[in-house]
Amino acid sequence: MVKKRQFDISKQLFVQAYHMVKANAGAAGIDKVSIDIFAKDLKNNLYKLWNRMSSGSYFPPAVKAVEIPKKSGGKRVLGIPTVGDRICQAVVKLSFEPEVEKIFLNDSYGYRPNKSALEAIGVTRQRCFKYPWVIEFDIKAFFDNIPHNLLIKAVEKHSKRKWELLYIKRWLKADMQRTNGKVVGRECGTPQGGVISPVLSNLFLHYTFDAWVTKHYPTIKWCRYADDGLLHCRSQHEAIRLLASLKQRFSDCGLELHPDKTQIVYCKMSGRKENYPIKSFDFLGFTFRSRTGKKSGSGKLFTTFTPAASKT
Prior knowledge:
The protein is an alpha+beta fold and 312 residues long. The protein is built from ten helices and eleven strands.
């Protein structure tokens, strides 16, 4: 029986979404249906998803919790949706992402079309030459702690279609099935591993950090990749004051800066005479620190501050 359509959602979006999910591969969710199994009855499976989403009757199944080791020790929990749910999330992403991309700022590099980590590394390299001090920050358990009320407020501001908001709300509330089989509800956060999560996290941090620092500290150069970020300062005093303000801002938005991964760094190079204990930082798989360079022509050695692949 065909359900009455409440929303006008293009069938073509589901075809695009399927190819997006297939290209990203990934494991099966709690239903144990892999991409290959889903594809065996592709036309019928996509039709069912389209029909349920169009009628407003689609409710996401629980996401499967998968623990992976963190490079700093401990474990990170990823939430793996079913293949069908990933396709539905991709449909909303295809519709919603172009709307928020219009307002995102250039120095946000993570999980965005036509942006890359290497771009962020290149920009950071140039700014370390110009600014002696860097604030390196990381948000503690960011994906687990995003306040739903603030995130929904941001989504409402930019969503032009009722069905986008409806399903985003449902995904935020979707249960998670732990590794021991226990199913738990969620009151905050968006699962790291969901197709829609990177767009939502970027939207939340656009208002929490990007737009805020641009408005209140217009002379500060910054760079952000997901929940890792850098701010470049002219002096240690400026960095200390800015870091205090930053901690308060994230606290006001329901988040906490990671105490062990947030620090002020001095970019030590020739001509910079300050004495400061922290002189290096890791960002996106690269270690930025003092290195010996050689001037072209004269061959004279000097100290520069550049990135190279980190040991980890």
